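Marked as duplicate of an earlier ticket. Keeping the data here for the record.
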Amino acid sequence: MKKLRLEELGRISVAEFKATSKLPAVFLLDNVRSLNNVGSAFRTADAFRVSKIYLAGITGTPPHREIHKTALGATESVDWEYAADAATLVQRLKSEGYQILAIEQTTGSTPLDQFTPLPNQHYCLVFGNEIDGVSDAVIDLCDGALEIPQHGTKHSLNISVCVGIVTWEVYSRLTRVGER
């Protein structure tokens, strides 16, 4: 076994990424404070070909040195859009046919390992503020909530870790049902 060099990985170019089919999912970052978390979300979105990232409220936007530090160029490949108000954006996405899923601990949340995506459905995965989570105004508009089961003494994960776990699960489940 040997570690692969960058040129052996067969990575696609930004232009090829833009032209390829995407996962039928978008991210909405609702008032995410840390620019490093924003950059990590971009990098994860690139890795799993997420269709788009929506940045709302106080969430920072590219170009920014702190976002670039963790995104490593993914702000160039992944489409993004800024919205001042997340709730207004959620209403628009719902009207476009997206199922809106908060990644949050709620009274009605579905454990992530029990989530079964529907074929031909588009999803908006909403990740919230590092302290307050997804805003109540957005929770009220969501079609559901997904929760990562946790069994330790802490009640939350860093948003960048959460984005990675949720995206992998949604990606692997959607590709199993024929979406991509």
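See parent ticket for discussion. The longest helix spans residues 159-176.
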